[in-house]
Design a protein that fits this description.
The protein is an alpha/beta fold. The protein has a single domain, classed as 3-Layer(aba) Sandwich (Rossmann fold). It has helices spanning 26-30, 43-60, 75-83, 108-112, 131-148, 160-170, and strands at residues 17-21, 68-71, 90-91, 154-158, 188-194, 197-205. A six-stranded mixed beta sheet has the order 3-2-4-1-5-6. Strand 2, helix 3 and strand 3 (90-91) form a beta-alpha-beta unit. The mean pLDDT is 93.
Length: 212
């Protein structure tokens, strides 16, 4: 039975954006908000990154190098890129995770002990970034990405919350709408176009083949 991996994205679409979230960390396991803290990948996260690289290769379906590969400065993103076999053209703070300010390292449950019903999408973050600021950063990054797409695929290696805002921004949606898009550790989302209209081509592809 054919799977999604048997139909490479690159053979049926113009150049696309591959959004790759870093692999598992000990804080992603516990649900702690991880912005600027430079947490390393777990051994499981490293394995996820290697598998994500294989999936990415199958999705692209070509040996032609991407036009642009960008990565967040955090080691979890750079290590993911390395293990996925990617040659990073630039490390940029534009791809950094949402700045969680005073909530860095806390879980949602812990934050809700102070602010009932709190979510990163709907409430302020003391001394951190607002949803509007993160959305503006995503839009600015997409301006660069759109220019690069004229010559080939773009691969962005970053984080969970920011990448979900980036997906929303690609579709012309506000930052809080990022809540509607899942992206698990080492998951891949493909952003492209159909007849000039932006779309999500594939969403949250796990770092292992179906059925494994």
């Amino acid at each position: 039975m054919a799977s999604a991996y048997d139909d490479p994205v690159g053979t049926n679409h113009p150049p696309v954006v591959y959004v790759l979230r870093h692999g598992q960390t000990r804080w992603s396991v516990t649900g702690q908000h991880t912005g600027r803290t430079d947490v390393a990948l777990t051994s499981g996260g490293e394995q996820q990154a290697r598998r994500a690289g294989l999936i990415l290769s199958r999705l692209r379906g070509t040996d032609v190098p991407p036009a642009l590969v960008l990565a967040s400065p955090r080691q979890r993103a750079q290590r993911t890129a390395e293990l996925a076999g990617l040659a990073v053209d630039e490390v940029t703070e534009e791809l950094a995770e949402w700045d969680y300010g005073d909530y860095e390292g806390l879980t949602t449950q812990e934050i809700r002990e102070q602010v009932p019903l709190w979510t990163v999408w709907s409430h302020p973050i003391p001394n951190g970034e607002s949803a509007e600021q993160v959305g503006k950063r995503a839009t600015q990054l997409l301006d660069r990405v759109t220019s690069a797409l004229a010559t080939g695929d773009v691969i962005l290696v970053g984080h969970g919350h920011f990448s979900r805002v980036l997906i929303a921004a690609w579709l012309g949606m506000s930052a809080p709408e990022g809540v509607r898009f899942g992206l698990d550790p080492a998951g891949i989302t493909v952003l492209g176009t159909e007849r000039g209209e932006r779309q999500v081509v594939r969403s949250n592809i796990p770092p292992w083949p179906s059925g494994e």
